[in-house]
Design goal:
Length: 235
């Protein structure tokens, strides 16, 4: 037969004793253990014990920990997931610092389907305001030929797009020789990458400049296409 009566203080001491014995146990698991170990059925419930345990631990925002020994700084969820293995994909989350007073942001140019008048206006404005950083913020190239969506055969021009990009880039460096140039890939540039992954996976480790030959290699090695660049380009 289980315990029929127990004082609040006795119950508190039982909980404290078990907290010291099992400091890392989840609150509900510990509550069920106490219910079974001390045969408290009919005296209290596991949920009430869980509430008391959390009250002492201070896990709920409205409660401060009553006994500092029971504080779990990172909470039970952190403890539970801390042993999760690292992923195979390495991601560099280091923020890219921009050392500039005036940044010219260009995006969605979509070579070779660009708007010449709009691009000229943007470049002239950048020159006028003295831009010392050029941020190419994605979709500079269109890469329509590699889209997974229905494609217009009249726009499936890969090499003309690259040639226009090279010409644009050379003019960009000539007009802004001291500017920091940053190229952030957009989903249209990624079309090129994904095409190579699908149709030429054996080439993906052909160089040490991003893991695949092609656009990334060109951007990080501009001398390979005959463009003299003193700026460090980052994707």
């Amino acid at each position: 037969m289980g315990i029929t009566t127990v004082s609040r203080e006795d119950l508190r001491q039982i909980v404290i004793h078990e907290l010291y014995a099992h400091p890392k146990w989840p609150s509900m698991s510990l509550a069920k253990h106490i219910m079974s170990e001390y045969k408290l059925a009919g005296v209290t419930t596991a949920e009430k014990l869980r509430y008391r345990i959390r009250y002492l631990r201070g896990n709920r925002k409205e409660h401060q920990p009553r006994i500092k020994d029971f504080i779990r700084p990172d909470g039970k969820r952190t403890d539970r997931w801390a042993s999760l293995p690292e992923g195979f994909r390495e991601i560099d989350w280091t923020p890219l610092e921009i050392h500039a007073r005036t940044t010219l942001v260009l995006s969605d140019i979509h070579f070779p389907n660009h708007d010449k008048a709009a691009l000229i206006a943007a470049m002239r404005h950048g020159k006028k305001v003295g831009a010392d950083c050029i941020l190419l913020n994605g979709d500079i190239l269109d890469c329509n030929a590699y889209s997974r969506w229905p494609r217009d055969p009249h726009q499936m021009m890969t090499m003309p797009g690259f040639r226009l990009f090279y010409d644009f880039f050379e003019r960009l460096i000539e007009d802004f020789p001291r500017a920091q140039v940053i190229y952030k890939f957009g989903n249209h540039e990624e079309r090129w990458i994904h095409y190579l992954w699908t149709h030429g996976p054996e080439l993906c480790l052909a160089d040490d400049n991003g893991g695949f030959p092609g656009l990334d290699f060109v951007l990080k090695n501009p001398e390979a296409i005959g463009i003299k660049v003193s700026n460090k380009i980052k994707d």
